Amino acid sequence: MSMPPGSFNPGRPDPAPFSPVPPPFPPPDRHWGLVLVAFVLCWPIGYFASRQAALIDFAWAAGDWEGGRRASAKAARLAKIGVVVGLVAWGWLAYRFFHPARLF
């Protein structure tokens, strides 16, 4: 008795070959420009924003499209928080050390 070609288990059909289905929409934005500004202004928050932005590609490649969208939204939110915190902190430092009353 000969087995059909490509069959490992007679009586069972061959499994279908893996064919990933592309999503019906483009990948989400990674917000790298905003993340870079956040990293320069406030590196602790910018670091976590960059980690979230990097997770977008991993989630997208794994087929977790909703996870990629969540990571994109979280990266944007963290980057915006980092920019605001950085601007407030650097503004306070500039006021504190370069205020005209302190210069004389």
Element order: H for helix, E for strand: HHHH
Rg estimate, integer Å: 25 Å
| Beta-strand content bin | under 5%
Number of helices: 4
Name the poorly predicted regions.
none
Blueprint of the fold:
Elements: H1 32-41, H2 43-61, H3 65-98, H4 100-103
Helix pairs in contact: 1-2, 1-3, 2-3
Labels describing this entry:
104 residues; mainly alpha; 64% helix
Describe this protein's structure:
The chain is mainly α and 104 residues long. The chain has a domain at 32-103. The chain contains four helices and no strands. Helix 1 runs antiparallel to helix 2 and helix 1 packs parallel to helix 3 (65-98). The N and C termini lie far apart (102 Å). The mean pLDDT is 84.
Summarize the structure in short.
The protein is mainly α. The chain has a domain at 32-103. Helices cover 64% and strands 0% of the residues.
